[in-house]
Amino acid sequence: xxxxxxxxxxxxxxxxxxxxxxxxxxxxxxxxxxxxxxxxxxxxxxxxxxxxxxxxxxxxxxx
Length: 63
Description:
The chain is mostly beta strands. It contains no helices and five strands. The protein has a three-stranded antiparallel β-sheet, with no helix packed on it. Strands 3-4 form a two-stranded antiparallel sheet.
């Protein structure tokens, strides 16, 4: 199991999410923590996701 000090690989997807090697914890502005134990986690960068901060592919539905 990785420790918090282990480096994580982050991939920027143009026009899409940030792909982060998991598991991850995302700390929100209000102090809440969103956790995912998946091996790769898609973090929303467009703020369109209904599951923000996790990506739900809403960036594909540009209006």
